[in-house]
Amino acid sequence: MTTIAVLGNGRVGGSLATALAQAGHEVRTAGRSPGAAADAARTAQIVVNATPGDGSLERLVALREELRGKILVDVSNATVHGPDGLPADLIYSGASLAERLQEALPETHVVKTLNTMLYPVMTAPATLAQAPDAFLSGEDAQAKQTVRELLVSLGWRDEWITDLGGVHTARATEAAVLFVPHVIRSHGFTPFAISIAH
Prior knowledge:
Number of strands: 9
CATH architecture: 3-Layer(aba) Sandwich
Distance between the termini: 35 Å
């Protein structure tokens, strides 16, 4: 059993925490308060960043000591929101939130994943009409393997998970968030994911 801290208790964090607990992991949750986040991260083996991406870097840098040596699973996208509240642009042009986190937290193993889909798909990938893809970006091979196993416990089949390489590859998956508002306007708020046809 893995002890996982989920930081962020919105729709993304809440659904991930519930699904991870149902998969048999010991889950601790924390909202945005620094004290609660530090307590949850301190005792966890894996920390999931499900906080709003525009403030994630500042929040997580404040947890540097608690995150030392841990795997940080980053599922957030750092975006500027448009008038309708949907993503309109990326905050880190020419970089990514995952890269900035890894630079700021060199003793933490950052793995980017699950950020190319609407949140219901993160925990129920088999409900889509066609197989979705989940991507892994990170510098540490063992950390990515651990995260792969975590995704499998959430219902992701191994062949649906693609290791893209180093953390710099998160730049590509984070940019995929710019599809989201256009797809939602065309199809409504129905679950979808970026999928690569082979």
